[in-house]
């Protein structure tokens, strides 16, 4: 194996990991707090992508992509809020029903996007400073991917700050530790649920903007990331942010390094095998459940 | 603890659910009137919904245009054609169901349709069982030979191999093959590899991405590693956008590293934004930029009906000429009987189409020319080479499938 290819794939691994992380943080949050599996999470990515595209139609150029980030965040968060308040809140005691209902929402959103924007993907053109590349030790690194890694790190940092240092973070941790006791002390548990769900959906929307920098935005763009996102959450140790981050890094690197030897489709299969074996050996995930430091 | 582990099982279940893509269950377009003495029913079966809809709706349009033109000119054997349109929904098993519905419930004489090789393979047993006839309009991988299908799209020796021949003439010696992971790219690349090796050149690498996949970081790293002279691209659909975009970001545009694509036509180029793929090459049997009166007439008629910005592609023209060839064959056979029609079609001799004069060979594939085009900024192709003479179709490549032949 050649060193350049290895370095290249090592970088690609972190790049894929940052996408996995952005796609799965929202799932980890809502699952950690509410034990709700949101099958429509992938469509929040799609929504973020389309919002980025629409923002760039209104504000073309470099400013557009920066503006697209808050627009996609707010837009996806609003959609998440709508789904949570109209559907998930009413079904939250019945996990299987939530699963099916959100799957239905996922199909509706996909078909809605198909009718609205067409079956063929739309393209978000990255500004010049994002479409170039940097050569480092013989490895060409696309700037868009560096940008995505930076955004992922930033999101992760802000999320940690929010959960550990802010009042809402305190409430979230309280609800997570003991929902009934938190409610008894006067915390509005439903509002905390709602906020966290919106936040999770918003992060997914942001991930959608990042995906749009790499490929077309299509009605089913979310579908290709929802399965890795689920895998990351399962492997990370349900609901733990540190675990989610570690799992995203492990899975991203695994799939990128596997691609040195095999095709992309075989690498995806190996990834599934790897996760199945991993949760056989360690069903509690990367981070053991008892760790409460960042356990959300 | 127990709760969490149970929850983890639930999540795994959730992943499995989303892995199972739900087969779309859309109801088909309205069935036509029952055929009476003055009409003859034919089926038009393309994906009107789902991921392939973007490509197949335009083929349906072209087929309907031909049917309308024929009806306006007095129909076939004095009968008006009644087109029964069905939706294959981008799903092979739906294609098979709808084909059997068209033949057994609507009593159609023949069916025009299909796009992906998976849809064709799914319909094949239906047509063989009912002894009906399918007119298939898309280039494909060959390695199939059924009396119940008229293969009008290019066989490998009418698209892939002429493209390779052109590349060899340009002096390219090392090839990188990129494709979507399904039957067409795998088979086409198998054939290409045999020919590249036989020509004493090298296959610098080969990479497949799942159909619809959008992450090409690994593939591009391998391309940078292998440093090929040219890439042969058999990706399908939206993957192409992601591929060209990420290539560009890695500093490899079609201008610095040539790419020859087999699935990018005028419409795909238009949808992708021609700027992204400008300068890349494509091989087809038809380009909208072909000259000739029949082509100009067809383009004008299509644009008049479906909008002046409509792009015309190779499979659309094949769909269009299939309907006209069926009409000619019916008139020659003086019968709508599929068996008689297919025999008549294979002995029709050459007929005029938007892509020039073509004819069906005894193996029920089309004898046609191949063209190489270079994509311009306006989304049209500049034709830079052609095969010269017509190419006789060979379903079984002699190097990849030795000893097999197609006798119908």
TrEMBL record, chain A:
One of its GO terms (cellular component) is plasma membrane. It is a multi-pass membrane protein. Keywords: Amino-acid transport, Cell membrane, Membrane, Transmembrane, Transmembrane helix, Transport. GO terms for biological process: amino acid transport. Signal peptide: none annotated. Its main location: membrane. The chain crosses the membrane at residues 20-38, 50-83, 146-164, 194-214, 226-253, 260-281. GO terms for molecular function: transmembrane transporter activity. It is found in: Cell membrane. Pfam families: BPD_transp_2 (PF02653). Belongs to the binding-protein-dependent transport system permease family. LivHM subfamily. This is Urea ABC transporter permease subunit UrtB. The gene is urtB.
Automatic annotation (TrEMBL), chain B:
The keyword Signal applies. The keyword Signal applies. PROSITE patterns: PROKAR_LIPOPROTEIN (PS51257). Residues 1-24 form the signal peptide. GO terms for biological process: amino acid transport. Keywords: Signal. It holds the Pfam family Peripla_BP_5. This is Urea ABC transporter substrate-binding protein. It comes from Sphingobium algorifonticola.
